[in-house]
Design brief:
93 residues, 5 helices, globular
């Protein structure tokens, strides 16, 4: 029975990391009957409430949105710079 509970906690934790779900929604999606059942299981396994666990793990991983925006801005700037260089060459010939 503990192995099943551990799998459910792991699934709910993945949902908390990747989806914009509440603790209740993640717990229910993972098979817990209530938010309190999920919270108890998470506290036993991780030593933290699900909300606290999410906050700590979110602080440890980079913000994907910021990385994506930075990558987009960097690639756009490169394309823009290369087109300006290409235009100068074409005009100078």
């Amino acid at each position: 029975m503990q192995a099943l509970t551990d799998l459910r906690v792991e699934q709910a934790e993945r949902l908390l990391q990747t989806a914009r779900l509440t603790v209740l929604e993640a717990g229910l999606a993972a098979g817990f009957g209530s938010a309190s059942a999920f919270t108890r299981a998470c506290r036993r396994r991780e030593g933290l409430s699900p909300a606290r666990w999410r906050a700590l793990t979110a602080a440890q991983r980079p913000c994907l949105a910021a990385v994506s925006i930075h990558s987009f801005a960097t690639s756009s700037a490169r394309r823009s710079a290369s087109s300006r260089v290409g235009n100068r060459t074409a005009v100078g010939e």
